[in-house]
Write a structure and sequence with these properties.
By secondary structure, this protein is α/β, with parallel strands linked by helices. The protein is 44% helix and 14% strand. The chain contains five helices and five strands. Strand 1, helix 2 and strand 2 form a beta-alpha-beta unit. It is elongated, with a radius of gyration of 17 Å.
Length: 172
């Protein structure tokens, strides 16, 4: 079961980055709002950052794959303890000003910040994972987690010898 979970996390990370990189046209050099030529792909991590052995690590794996297989220049920024929406907004703004395109916020907590920053940088493509943010330059990367969870439950039920299975969740 652990192997399935690891593969799923990596697949989600890679798919998120690939989808965000190709979903919305546009470049930051078109209107001058993004700081010139595109530097490449950038990620702002959710709480826990790299090394969380979960969602952020899957995004990092996708970032590394984009760099290695497709030659993207990349940047990533870790969260800080006790940060606010203003901190997230500053992080996304900094990446857009530096010319990264696309800029991806990992996690629903980036919702308010993403909405504000995407409006200020209309020629930069943004992506947000696990949230829907309306905007012509925002790719909302949402997944049918219920379908994967159902399949994981079926696999666990078929694999158990004790007729008992467990579940460990993320946030409430």
């Amino acid at each position: 079961m652990r192997r399935i979970s690891r593969l799923t996390r990596v697949a989600v990370g890679v798919a998120s980055l690939a989808l965000a990189a190709t979903a919305c046209g546009g470049t930051s050099s078109e209107g001058g709002d993004g700081g010139g030529d595109d530097k490449g792909l950038a990620i702002a991590y959710d709480v826990g950052g790299k090394g969380d052995q979960s969602f952020n690590d899957a995004a990092y794996a996708g970032l590394e794959k984009a760099k290695k297989e497709f030659g993207y220049k990349t940047a990533d920024i870790e969260p800080t303890d006790g940060e606010t929406d203003a901190d997230k907004e500053q992080r996304l703004t900094s990446l857009a000003k530096q010319g990264y395109n696309p800029v991806i916020g990992v996690g629903f907590a980036y919702g308010p910040a993403m909405k504000a920053v995407a409006a200020k940088y209309p020629d930069t493509t943004f992506g947000i994972v696990d949230s829907v943010v309306e905007g012509k330059n925002v790719a909302s990367l949402v997944f049918a987690e219920n379908e994967a969870s159902y399949l994981a439950g079926v696999a666990a039920a078929k694999a158990t010898k004790t007729k008992t299975v467990g579940f460990v969740g993320g946030v409430d």
